[in-house]
Amino acid sequence: MNCILFRGNSYQAKKGYFKGTHRIVSPEETWEKIAPLTSQIGVSRVANVTGLDRIGIPVTAVIRPEALTLSTSSGKGLDLCTSLVSGLMESLELHCAEEADLSYLHLPYHELSKRVKTIPIDRLPLRKNSLFRPDWPERWTIGWDLFNQEEVAVPLLSVIHNYKIVRQEPSELHSFEMTSNGLASGNHFLEALAAGIYELIERDAITCHMFAFETVKAALPRV
Fold first, then answer.
1. SS3 string of 47-87?
2. Could you tell me if residue 43 is inside a domain?
3. Cystine design at 157: which of 44, 178, 180, 196 (Cβ 3.0–4.6 Å)?
């Protein structure tokens, strides 16, 4: 069994569920673990909205009225339980990203790069029409490079999902995108890690497809 190294620790897990999705445990077991957390993360209602269309795929809506970002998370699955787990796990992801209290460095990129490994400027997740400048201070937190097994500084806004923090430094909102790209959860660290990487691959493929379409101005056969 292969393992993943993360900050000096070795992680490995064995799949135990294969119906429609590969997981460590069944959706029923996952639901038993996470259902008691609903009040803790501010969930006020979980609704079965499958009947709102004619397709019939089980769909649920999980509502967090006081969420700092998205207040509604949608779940889907082969059956109702899988759909419930899908929706609640997404709510858990967002709650964690909203409430994350991470240490950070408030430094210009040029000074930061002298202290720690950084992402090349041309690969930073900048907003369209970004006002980013290497000599302006931004907030950075420390991530982990899985390939090179070393720490790397990343924009704090790429990790958290809380617009309240932007009020402290409004200019930063004009530098980096704050999105849920790569935000994922799971029954195990590796399950969450795999889900996050899959999402990035999916969204990258769609984005590349859209750029290609804009270039040739014609429908492309596949992503």
1. EECHHHCCCCCCEEEEECCCCCCCCEEEEECCCHHHHHHHH
2. yes
3. 178
User: Domain check: are 32 and 94 in the same one?
Assistant: yes
User: Side-chain half-sphere of 144: how many Cα atoms within 13 Å?
Assistant: 9
Q: What is the pLDDT of residues 136-195, one digit of tens each?
A: 999 999 999 999 999 999 999 999 998 777 776 666 567 888 889 999 999 999 999 999
Q: Do 21 and 92 belong together in one domain?
A: yes
Banded model confidence at residue 214, pLDDT cuts 50, 70, 90: confident
Q: Does the pLDDT at position 132 exceed 60?
A: yes
Residue 160 lies in a domain: yes
On whether both 86 and 133 belong to a single domain, the answer is: no
25, 27, 15, 24: which is closest to 78 by C-alpha? 27
Tell me the C-alpha distance between 156 and 158, whole Å. Answer: 5
Q: What is the mean pLDDT of the chain?
A: 92
Residue range(s) defining the domain that contains residue 128: 105-174
HSE of 14, CA atoms in CB hemisphere, 13 A: 2
Give residue 183's Cα distance to chain centre.
1
pTM of the model: 0.89
Provide the domain count of the chain. Answer: 2
| 167 and 147 housed in the same domain | yes
Residue 138 lies in a domain: yes
